[in-house]
Amino acid sequence: MSTDSALPIPELPDWANYVQWWQVYPLGALGADTTGQDPNSYGKLSDLIPWLDHARDLGLNGLSLGPIFKSELHGYDTIDYFQIDPRIGTLDDFQALLAAAHERGLKVMLDGVFNHVSKNYPWEPEQAPAHLAIDDAGNVRVFEGHGQLQELDLQKPATKALIGKVLSYWTDLGVDAWRFDAAYALDGPAISEVLSSFRSQYPQVLLAAEIIHGDYPQLVAQAGFHTCTQYELWKAIWSALKDENLYELAWACGRHNYFTRAFLPWTFIGNHDVTRIASQLPLASRHLAPLLLSTLPGMPTVYYGDELAWEGLKEERFGGDDAIRQALPKQVPGPSERPLEYSHYARLLGLRRRFPQITSGQVQILAVAGAALAYAVRDQAGKPVMVVALNAGQKHSTLPLGEGISGLTASDPEGSVNGEPAPSSSRAQYLAGQDAGWEADRFELDPGAWMIWEV
After folding, report:
1. What whole-number distance in Å separates Cα of residue 199 and Cα of residue 9?
2. Mean pLDDT computed over 280-285
3. Which whole number is the average pLDDT over 241-255?
4. Do residues 94 and 78 touch, judged by C-beta distance below 8 A?
């Protein structure tokens, strides 16, 4: 893919156009202590194997693992890139999990923390200055004020060599994808040298970046990643639903169109760094978040536990992430024990897999009024694939469509698909939903209603 900048974005591995991830934070999911007080193991990576069927039944075909390398606290303070953290098992446990995932058709992603290491990383005396970033005063730079985390200097040859060695070691074991933690802080031109060499050796390995703010296409292209986290859409989804202001989401869809024309964004409604979606939204509208995740373009990810309606509030304090990084139960819930949320996610993700063309499509806003929104998703050729309507409000909503839907053109958030005739209700086929209807010239939506049509 290409961007408005002079730098091209690498082409995705073929399989990445169809992947839907289940993201797990292993240290939390397996009950490890992350305060540094208890180094014992209470669960092994191989204990996640029974959960792979849980993820596959949900409609997911990728397992995105949080940090698994040896560290002292939360996993993002690495002290050995080549050893599995003893709190979650051994290399044998990891290889068993990897093999089991591949047997079930799941790709596996690892979390690479290459911007910083623990202040107690066991460097040899001559190695530390060859790897660490030094400020003008001669002190080792720390990451975002965290004294525990010392920054690596990616312009130093030894650091580039270390990162390349880590990537190759684990990829040779069978890893399919990498998430680059804090990629927004990495030196783009410097990491691009590492990634360019790596991609030439492993063209079918996905490289995903954690980026929060900024011009995503430019940042992705500069460093040579394939994709990055779409935090703008994440924020718009929960904020629009919570405030019953779908104008915010309509505008964000315009930005999302701009991104998807350049690369395939990594979409989500929850992860290990944010308040869980079930705590973020009122009960009456929380079911609409997975609807949006499943019907908007992108590479979707479900954070473990969200499909089980887990709640958790992130707090800005030491240990403030614990509530959103809970332990999985020892027993995987069977079909009769799964909550309604699970079947809701599974139904929506299953529909998405039936229509892979929406992955890299464009959003056309059909109508928006307060808490209600209707949009079409078009494929890369501009052909409408589906129409989605929803009402996050507490009152019935009628979304008028002017003189007739067949002559309607899209509204005009920046970057949206403009000037295209809207899909016709007479040619639409109902797929799923509740408490919603589509007449020739309007949508009728009860509180909490949603519906999907194939067009």
Report:
1. 12
2. 96
3. 98
4. no
Report which secondary-structure segment, H or E, holds 129. helix 128-131
In three-state form (DSSP H/G/I as H, E/B as E, the rest C), the secondary structure along 15-61 is HHHHCCEEEECHHHHCCCCCCCCCCCCCCCHHHHHHHHHHHHHCCCC
- Measured from the Cβ of residue 155, the count of other Cβ atoms closer than 10 Å reads 13
Count of alpha carbons within 13 Å of 264, Cβ hemisphere only? Answer: 26
pTM metric for this prediction: 0.94
Q: Contact at 8 Å (CB) between 30 and 48? A: yes
pLDDT band at 249, cuts 50/70/90?
very high
- Contacts for 16 with CB less than 8 Å, ≥ 6 apart: 177, 206, 226, 227, 264, 299
Per-residue pLDDT at 129: 95
Whether the CB-CB separation of 98 and 112 falls below 8 Å is answered with: no
Position 320 scores a pLDDT of 87
Looking up tokens 């536990």 gives 305
- CA separation (Å) from 86 to 91, 92, 185, 309? 9, 12, 28, 30
Q: Residue 96: what pLDDT?
A: 98
Whether residue 241 contacts residue 285, with contact meaning beta carbons closer than 8 Å, is answered with yes
CB contact at 8 A, 351 and 229:
no
Q: Which residue has the higher pLDDT, 415 or 320?
A: 320
Report how far residue 51's alpha carbon sits from residue 369's, in angstroms, rounded to the nearest whole number.
41
Indicate whether 3 pLDDT > 80. no
Asked whether the predicted pLDDT for residue 54 surpasses 90, the reply is yes
Q: Report the pLDDT averaged over residues 344-354.
A: 97
Cα dihedral across residues 37, 180, 346, 94: positive or negative: negative
Give the N- to C-terminal CA distance of the chain in Å, as an integer.
Answer: 27
Backbone phi, psi, residue 162, to 5°: -65, -45
* Residue 404: other Cβ atoms inside 10 A: 12
pLDDT at 437: 86
pLDDT at residue 407 greater than cutoff 80: no
Helices and strands counted in the chain (H then E): 12, 19
Euclidean distance between CA atoms 439 and 451, whole angstroms: 13
Triad 334, 336, 337: Cα angle to 5°: 65
